[in-house]
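Second opinion, please. Pick holes in both lines of this record:
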Amino acid sequence: MAICTETLTFYTPYSDLNKMIGALKKVFHLEIKNLFHKNNELEIYLMNNDRIMVTYSTTDMQDLLNSQLEELYQAVVVRDAVPIALQVKENLLIQIELVHGIYKVEFEYDEESRNERIVSLMEVADNLTALILWETGDISNSYGDIILSSQGESEVAIFNPIDEASLMIDRYHIDDKQRTRLQRSTQILRYKGIFAPSDLEIPDEVRYYTCLDKTDIAKRAVACMILAIYAGLIQDMEWSSDQAFSYVEQMIDMYSATGYFTMDEIDFLNEAQPSKELCDRYQMYYEYSNVLLWSLGYFKELSFPDAACNSSLIVQTIFNYSTVDEIAKHGRLQEASDMLDALDLIQRYEWACHHAIRKQFSMPAHLDPTITVYRHHALKWLISDSEEIWNKVDMKIKVMNRT
């Protein structure tokens, strides 16, 4: 019976050799006869005399690690992925940045038992959350699905990088509610095929201030809607600023909204010939009204930020009431936990947009970076660790402190 050898390379965020030893013992616990550890090598003999050799490089051997990572990076870059696999390829490049350990696994097998041995090694890879590079040049996940073949094709529709912080979350001071919040956001991100690091600060019920004044929220929603309508009349209908203001002035009077605007917004309304840039900016204020009406319970959920909100629905919802007091009275403020969930998720979406722009990647899951910024701004005004002034909202995305 012919004895064959084959080599797989595991790329993993784990840099601890004990993690590999633990995975091997867990999967082969009934088959291991001897396990030898010398320098940067493991040699395992199984009961049937098959042999598995593991050579590893970790952050302790940075030069070797970097050279092998560069080889994988170049192997990915030079492949002309078909359009459907483009995002998978970009996510794979992100994954490479997160690798801290590389294990070359050479194993012996007889021709009849190859599949059985491969299945066992897939289990080892799964315990290490590893990417697998085959001798053929194909790259797969730990289940054996091809992420990116040597021809630039993929068997998976969504591939999500694994962030080491999510694997080592105990390094951070987070309570059970924050852990649940992070898990919720991570599940959504993975489903959408979006990467964002797990160590972004998680908003919590203790430190974060939640705006509970429904009237203030309603005033801001009305003001943002009026500004968006005004900008649209000038931009889309090609009205003069005087014509547009005469139209929205009726709304300002109806809702007694004169005092609802910031100084910058008043300057815009008084501008004789507002620029296209300004009109574009204020037409996006529908996105603010959308978030604020959601916070008041008028909309069941915030849709995925890949397309503009329904401006007609926003206008119709507000115009159902003739005063701000009525809007506030009939609104039912979202639960604090739901608002904190929304803030946690949107800041991860925004991080992903910024990262894609820096890397010149396509926008993950067709996220709209402008919409994510407006939504983040509105949520941060509603929820923060201190009361926020609308035009001075702190938009910085912070990271958690390690223990």
Q: What stands out?
A: Residues 213-330 form one domain. The CA atoms of residues 9 and 104 lie 4 Å apart. The chain has three domains: 3-162, 169-208+336-392, 213-330. Strands lie at 3-12, 32-38, 41-46, 51-58, 101-110, 131-134, 139-140, 146-148, 209-210, 383-384.
